[in-house]
Specification:
The chain has helices at residues 21-34, 39-54, 92-99, 150-172, 179-192, 201-220, 225-232, 236-245; strands spanning 59-64, 70-76, 87-88, 104-106, 123-131, 134-143. The chain is an alpha+beta fold and 250 residues long. The chain starts with 20 loop residues before the first helix and ends in a 5-residue tail after the last helix.
């Protein structure tokens, strides 16, 4: 996917002014991400918006792993697509600024071990993606020529990071966890809101998980009971009884 202004056939007047950018962010970009639930597509929409309104020519989505290291989760635009999965080790001051919630501009990519592989003739502006005060990653927009002064560009990137980060956190919150970790965290959360007393807790939790699983499987197979039974590994009569017990069928 090429995201350059030239490839999109855009008029120069489509690039926003610093004064108009916040309004366009709310009127144009916010509705786009409210309809999207895939993190890769969310970031693709963000880079697309920056292409249309800021003259960006591509970009990257960086994530932070459990040890605080950066790696590239998505690349958008010519050359950037091939960077997905690469680890990225920035200078310490770059890392510190991102953790403080500041945008950072890499004025030259010549000496960067990752980005110099594809582009050297421009600069990359990185916006921190913060949720609940924690850095979860960064969004980077590439320009071969500046459309605005650096301080205005960094300010715009901070704005888009603040809009994008909550939506990104919601749709990707569990994506790197195994199903056992997801269940453990949700059960711990549920137990924290319960007063512990004698009862049928195991039976109740098992039924909640089973009901949710059967409901999801039925949706996946288009409510075809024979297909659902095969996927679940139970016979059709057993499935039909459970569907009745859980209120899926009369």
């Amino acid at each position: 996917m090429a995201l350059s202004t030239r490839d999109k056939g855009m008029e120069p007047s489509k690039v926003a002014s610093p004064q108009a950018f916040p309004t366009l962010l709310l009127e144009e970009f916010l509705p786009l991400i409210q309809r999207e639930s895939d993190p890769q597509k969310l970031c693709e929409e963000a880079i697309g918006f920056l292409t249309r309104r800021l003259g960006a020519e591509g970009g990257v989505w960086l994530s932070v792993d459990s040890r605080g290291g950066f790696f590239i989760k998505g690349g958008f635009g010519k050359g950037f697509e091939g960077l997905r999965g690469f680890p990225w080790d920035p200078h310490e001051e770059v890392k510190l600024d991102l953790y403080k919630g500041k945008a950072v501009t890499l004025q030259s990519l010549n000496f960067d071990p990752v980005f110099s592989k594809i582009r050297k003739d421009g600069f990359l502006t990185l916006a921190p993606l913060l949720t609940a005060g924690h850095l979860r990653g960064a969004l980077g927009a590439f320009h071969s020529e500046p459309v605005w002064p650096s301080e205005h560009l960094q300010e715009a990137m901070v704005w888009i990071g603040r809009v994008l980060a909550p939506a990104l956190a919601l749709c990707s919150l569990w994506e790197d966890l195994g199903i056992d970790e997801i269940l453990e965290r949700k059960i711990e959360q549920a137990l924290g809101n319960l007063s512990i007393k004698e009862g049928n807790l195991l039976k109740e939790i098992t039924e909640i998980v089973e009901r949710s699983l059967i409901g999801c499987v039925m949706k996946k197979v288009g409510n075809v009971q024979s297909a659902a039974a095969r996927l679940l590994g139970i016979n059709r009569n057993t499935l039909r009884k459970k569907l009745r017990d859980y209120g899926f069928i009369p």
